[in-house]
Amino acid sequence: MAAKNRQIVLASRPQGAPQEANFRLVESEIPQPAEGQFLVKTHYLSVDPYMRGRISEAKSYADPVGIGDVMVGGTVGTVIESRHAKYQAGDVVVGNGGWQEFSLSNGEGVYRFDASMAPMSTALGVLGMPGMTAYFGLLDIGRPQPGETVFVSGAAGAVGSVVGQIAKIHGCRAVGSAGSQDKVDHLVNDLGFDAAFNYKNVKDYAAKLQEVCPGGIDVYFDNVGGPLTDAVFTQLKLRGRVVVCGQIDQYNAEKPPQGPRLLWHLIVKRARAEGFLVFDYFSRFPEAMCDMAGWLQEGKLQYRETITDGLENAPRAFIGLFQGENLGKQLVRIVKE
Ligand code: NAP
Ligand code: FER
User: Fold this and answer.
1) Which among 43, 44, 79, 260 counts the fewest CB atoms within 10 Å?
2) What whole-number distance in Å separates Cα of residue 67 and Cα of residue 64?
3) Are 167 and 178 in contact (CB under 8 A)?
4) Residue 324: CB within 6 Å of ligand 2?
5) What are the residues whose beta carbons fall under 8 Å from the beta carbon of 85, sequence distance 6 or more?
6) Is residue 295, in this structure, part of any structural domain at all?
7) Is residue 115 in a domain?
8) From the CB of 232, is ligand 1 less than 6 Å away?
């Protein structure tokens, strides 16, 4: 066992886009579990767009990460010592260990991962929080029907790539946008999207959407927000549904956007726009995981992971999310299997 725990703490709050200087690597003693606790060695940690919100001042569903606190985040790893009735050394567990190599847990928000089902890394991606977001956001909020057109922004990322594939599994036409030609090719050639475009090369989003979704859009799964979303509103079909999942285009904005106000389109199309949080579905994760693991085994669901090695590179991996450096799920690997 390594003699020390290494941790990434928040050094300062970013103004605009996060920078590496907003984070600091520190070392501390490896903690000992008290009665009712267990110690986990992290194998992979997740970096996610929502963390941008957690390092800003504003309180939301959770308190912000304090200056000097270990960065929060999902982790998968193995229990190495336990004084908890439900967990034993050797168990593979998913939890919120944060950006550190070892973490203590009392079992809250933790669940066991069956590592014979799929590689451990998938517990943070396609079979983890992002996969669950795609599943419940699309099926529960978007309610796609066979033959409908589903358009997803941020389509080559962890959530978006799964949304398009579940849309296909449900007999829909899947169309996506992403930030490079390689990503667009991947969506169409590897993941089975019917069409995709590179939003960075498009000036007139509404015209592009008309070209790739000629009859209009039944379900819009929005990961991005901003001007692309404004354009989608103009292309909704009668009784269209907008699944408001993420607004990454806005996360580093220093002032709230003064949007074009396009809600008129919701009236005309009798359409619905609804936000959701994946955490509200925690109790239903097992049913989704069962479907998703089945689709993985049947080859109906593909996934990609972008893996960055070393805890010290977690800030860089996180910053890369806002620059589109990842294809599929961005992970940080602590232990090479
Ligand atoms: P991700 O898509 O794997 O990574 C972020 C991607 O966003 C990047 O790869 C980049 O790809 C794209 N991006 C960055 N800046 C952008 C911009 N200004 N305009 C357009 N695209 C931009 O991340 P994820 O974990 O799957 O999350 C996707 C979205 O879902 C995020 O908005 C996140 O906040 C949201 N989310 C919501 C919930 C919920 O419960 N509501 C849960 C999980 C995630 P490009 O190369 O395409 O630009
Ligand atoms: C996300 C964006 C926002 C996300 C969660 C939130 C889990 C929650 C925000 C809030 O409650 O303020 O990508 O992913």
Assistant:
1) 260
2) 9
3) no
4) no
5) none
6) no
7) yes
8) no
